[in-house]
Task: inverse folding
């Protein structure tokens, strides 16, 4: 696809007439992807077509649906004559290209070609935006078209547009969110039903909340992609997936959940982006949060984001973060928004990346930590661990011990003890170095869990 200067500058329709000049021709929509979200987006476009035309002032017309296996697509609302494997043909013949195929390639190439050809793009592709967002935002601006992606973060929850537009006059300092429904469901089941991680994961897979390969969710990668997008929007500075520190939930145990409950806390996987004195940080990690915090009441597969801005203060966004219909709702909202711009002969606000803020080093990360060791029950162990913490300058705020019989532990016939230490505020690098040295003691069994305390 080559550059089409007249189309990108004047926003002409398929007959060459300028938009916004009494034009009543339909606005062409090309769908790339006919999976869970793509099929539901097509359904909403068909079923709500008449009402949407009233909202827009022009009719929306699906001109093509590209997918890998058209022969397998069988939905009553999808005209089979629209189905094709030719993604480029669908993209070339659309005013709005809706990219729902996911992944980096060929999505990146298709989106760039659409933007460079004068078509606006709606996408739900978080991985693409987290990796190549800056390139795509600039391509949209250079070609005087729009790139919308509400569905890429938190499904149906309106979070992207408030950061992009509603808070454009404010200064956002932090966003703390539960941005992955799979991990929230697993942790919630562990909390409410006392399940082990593996059992809760299998339950999530059986109910369709987790993929057959759940790695991207449980290792925090999905939430990290969203954190990169949110940080870029909130702080007007390029933040990619490579800038995000990530820790998943695979090390969270039933003992961690029980200890949290005893302290009136819950464990949640948080996406945290902040603009502090040491620069911008974007992190994903499991953390202990008080039961009274709004994020503690986010159950099941729901998502939520807690935004702090200087003038607006604290804002909470909550709702379903995944699923075909909820995500399609966000996609359709972007399609309608862009169609209104086309009907009016305008474009929406671009994403101003005028800042080039430094990225805060990991050494600047300070928090209170709860560290849970599994150790052999012998005299002098607590003293040895306490001395090691003192050697590293990590102050211990509290200690909890619990004896648990484990007769099947290799090489040890006695009882194992769960030793849980809570620190005062300390830097993460020092804490982890200290824990690594403690793990060299022969009486420490397995890898300890380390949770931040919010």
Result:
């Amino acid at each position: 696809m080559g550059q089409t200067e007249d189309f990108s500058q004047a926003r002409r329709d398929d007959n060459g007439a300028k938009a916004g000049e009494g034009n009543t021709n339909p606005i062409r929509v090309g769908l790339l992807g006919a999976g869970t979200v793509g099929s539901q987006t097509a359904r909403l476009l068909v079923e709500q077509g008449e009402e949407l035309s009233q909202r827009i002032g022009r009719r929306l017309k699906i001109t093509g649906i590209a997918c890998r296996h058209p022969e397998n697509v069988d939905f009553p609302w999808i005209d089979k004559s629209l189905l094709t494997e030719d993604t480029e043909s669908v993209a070339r013949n659309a005013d709005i290209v809706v990219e729902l195929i996911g992944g980096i390639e060929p999505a990146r190439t298709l989106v760039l070609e659409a933007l460079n050809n004068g078509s606006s793009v709606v996408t739900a592709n978080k991985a693409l935006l987290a990796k190549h967002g800056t390139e795509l935002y600039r391509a949209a601006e250079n070609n005087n078209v729009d790139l919308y992606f509400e569905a890429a973060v938190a499904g149906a929850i309106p979070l992207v547009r408030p950061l992009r537009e509603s808070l454009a006059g404010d200064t956002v300092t932090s966003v703390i969110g539960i941005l992955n429904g799979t991990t929230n469901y697993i942790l919630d089941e562990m909390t409410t039903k006392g399940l082990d991680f593996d059992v809760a994961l299998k339950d999530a897979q059986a109910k369709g909340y987790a993929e057959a390969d759940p790695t991207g969710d449980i290792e925090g990668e999905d939430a990290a992609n969203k954190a990169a997008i949110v940080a870029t929007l909130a702080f007007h500075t390029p933040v990619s997936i490579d800038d995000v520190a990530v820790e998943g939930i695979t090390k969270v145990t039933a003992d961690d959940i029980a200890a949290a409950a005893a302290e009136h806390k819950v464990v949640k996987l948080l996406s945290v982006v902040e603009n502090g004195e040491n620069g911008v940080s974007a992190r994903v990690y499991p953390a202990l949060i008080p039961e009274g915090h709004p994020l503690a009441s986010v159950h099941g597969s729901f998502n939520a984001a807690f935004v702090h801005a200087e003038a607006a203060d604290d804002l909470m966004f909550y709702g379903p973060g995944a699923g075909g219909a909820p995500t399609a709702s966000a996609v359709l909202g972007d399609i309608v928004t862009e169609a209104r711009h086309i009907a009016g002969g305008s474009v929406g606000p671009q994403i101003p990346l005028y800042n080039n803020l430094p990225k805060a080093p990991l050494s600047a990360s300070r928090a209170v930590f709860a560290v849970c060791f599994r150790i052999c029950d012998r005299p002098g162990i607590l003293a040895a661990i306490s001395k090691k913490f003192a050697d590293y300058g990590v102050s211990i705020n509290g200690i909890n011990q619990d004896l648990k019989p484990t007769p099947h532990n290799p090489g040890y016939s006695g009882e194992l003890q769960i030793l849980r230490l809570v620190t005062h505020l300390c830097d993460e690098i020092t804490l982890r170095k200290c824990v690594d040295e403690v793990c060299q003691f022969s009486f420490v069994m397995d890898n300890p869990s380390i949770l931040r305390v919010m």
About this structure: DSSP finds 15 helices and 17 strands in the chain. The mean pLDDT is 91.
